[in-house]
Amino acid sequence: MGFTRRRKENFFNFEELKPPSLKQCFAYCSMFIKDFDIEKDDLIQLWMAQGWLHPCSDKSQEMEERGNEYFKILLAKSFFQDVTKGYGGNVTKCKMHDLVHDLAEHVSKSRNLRSFFSNGEVLGSNLLNFKSLRVLNLYKADIMELPISIGELKHLRYLNVLKTRIKTFPKSIGQLYNLQTLKIPYQLEEFPREIANLINLRHIYFGRYMKVPGGILRWLTNLRSLPFLKVSNETGLGIEELGCLNQLHDTLSIYGLENVRDGEEVSKANLVEKKHIRKLILDWKLSRPSHNVENDDAVLEGLRPHSNLKFLEIQRFMGVKLPSWLLLAHNLKEIELLGCNKCEGVPVLGHLPNLNCVKIMRMENLTRIGSEFYGDNHVNCGNGSSKEARPLFPALKTLHIEGAQNLIEWMEAPTGRASVVFPCLEELTLIKFRVTIHG
What we know:
Blueprint: H1 2-15, H2 20-28, E1 38-39, H3 40-49, H4 63-76, E2 81-85, E3 91-95, H5 98-108, E4 115-117, E5 135-137, E6 158-160, E7 181-183, E8 203-205, E9 229-230, E10 250-255, H6 263-266, E11 277-283, H7 296-302, E12 311-315, E13 334-338, E14 357-361, E15 368-369, E16 378-380, E17 387-389, E18 398-402, E19 409-411, E20 427-431, E21 436-438
Parallel strand pairs: 4-5, 5-6, 6-7, 7-8, 9-10, 10-11, 11-12, 12-13, 13-14, 14-18, 15-19, 18-20, 19-21
Antiparallel strand pairs: 1-3, 2-3, 16-17
């Protein structure tokens, strides 16, 4: 009885889905095997490849934004369950109940999905007979190469060859002009220069150790996601490649910052124009010649992000002072400073209204946390003559300081300047240092 009732409820919920493209998106989920961990971003990219996410009225809405709306609707109606969350509490994965999967299979039978998924076996040369193919998912397929004729799939929007044995791509990969999503196997020996032709590419995935030559990424101005950028003298990939990639969303990781010459060069990355970036990771190599650390201050100062940034990680920075632009990071929620051994002071953070997590680890040169840590909590009341005190660190819930062995003094907030300090603090962790608190 309960089983049949659940089926009827699911079907009723399906019939209520609007617009019609949302029904198509749900039906498409039958492509996954039962109990499969569905990655939200991957699912949205697959929907996008089928052409179901084009905005109807709001022309400024991104297809990915519309896909997120659809996902939230299906989640709210219990078509998805067992969600996994990432940073910021955002859903990253989900599953479908078996009964819901059965419904998706049932309603998908009459729909032309224009997709080919492989779970280890491939279709062989017959694959290229499907000229209207939009999705080619060869994840974990036992193949060593892509055919040269792959370039004939002119309608292809999504290509996934992760965890295959492919080591080189044919040059014809550059003929997939409509491709939106490309997932490259980590063991690929050479990053194809022909990818520069894929001007409609929105999402690209490759491994941490992929050597990306310079002069390619700068042409992919429609990119919404980039796994990372590693500045390298060996490959000629410079930080200026980011200059025109102002459509990047979500997370941006920049490695190899020790290879940036100076502040003038780093300014070409134009991070301040990238208003959709929410998480920024800035990383330097730890072991390097001492003369390379001298311009770290200028490089970090030039990496000023847009004020929309919410999460910031600075790793192995060897300058002595942190950037002035932190004063203006009013939307920042989390900051992590890892291995910044030469820094002699902590940044001014107490005035930031949304900051809820601060982690400082392995800052060996830090000897003192002074009153400047708390910032200025006084603001004009409106008439320009008087000021009103606000709480310091008003939203901070987590403060973690570890490995500051030379920290010997921590000043309290100046008397009379703050009515409340750390009003929301829930977790205070202090590891491996000795300190005296001074009022």
